[in-house]
Every structure is written in structure tokens, then in C-alpha cells.
Design a protein that fits this description.
two-stranded antiparallel ribbon, 146 residues, mainly alpha, 53% helix
Amino acid sequence: MPIRPDEVTEDDERRVHERLDGKLDSLGPKKGFIGRLIADAKLFYEMLRDPDFKLQWQDKAKIIACLLYFIAPVDLVPDFIPGLGYIDDAVIMGLTIKALATLLAKFREYRRENPKWKRIESKKTGNPVEGPSPTSATATRGRPSR
């Protein structure tokens, strides 16, 4: 079930960092609806991973809650149901994108202007992977664990 952003902790952020790559790898390269969902999840993850892009806790918590829902093995419509399994994930992702539209525009501009963001191809999946690798810098920002 969805987690509310005001319930998000740093432990939840660690779970996203531990599990999102596996979820994306399990989906493999996709096109269409699922491909857009994966691209949105990656964009949010890139925002979390970049230690130089400053996020307010409330925005960070919304992203973490959204990604936790995406990686959840069981949610409102289980992901294993062909054709329907990711509809609920897309709704949550879409609502989060709408809520953070201004922040997403700033992040895209930041990536265009920042030389550290270079497109590379993942040897594992063939999907594009961008940006710096995760660092412990994200642990120094945000709210303490509960």
C-alpha cells in the first residue's frame, strides 16, 4: 500500500537505493507505457543520488514514497498481472510528477548545465543510465530515522 510522504524515513531511502536497480534490471529494456514509467523512476532516482542537487525533505520524501511504491512486490494491482500490473504504479508516478513539476524542470536544467552528467549505456541492460553514482552524501540530508 502507498506510504504517505510524512511517514518516510532515511531507512526508506536506503531501501530505495538497495532495491530500485534490481527492480529496473528485472524489467529489462521496455518501450511504450512501461518504458516511460521506467524513465520516470530513473529520473527521480537520479535526483536522489545527486549529492549536489539540493532537495527539501518534503520533496525528497515524495520521491522516496513514489519509488517505494514502484518497487513494492505487492501493491494495489500486483505487477505480475499482464497489461494491468503497472497501471497503479503509473498513477502514483504521474501524481508525483505533477506535484513536483517545477522541481523536475529545475533538475532537467541542472543536468543540461552540469558537465558531470554524461549519458552512458548500461552494459547489463542496454538502458541508458545517467549521472553520478550514489554517495553517502544523501545520508547527511533529510530527517532522522524513526
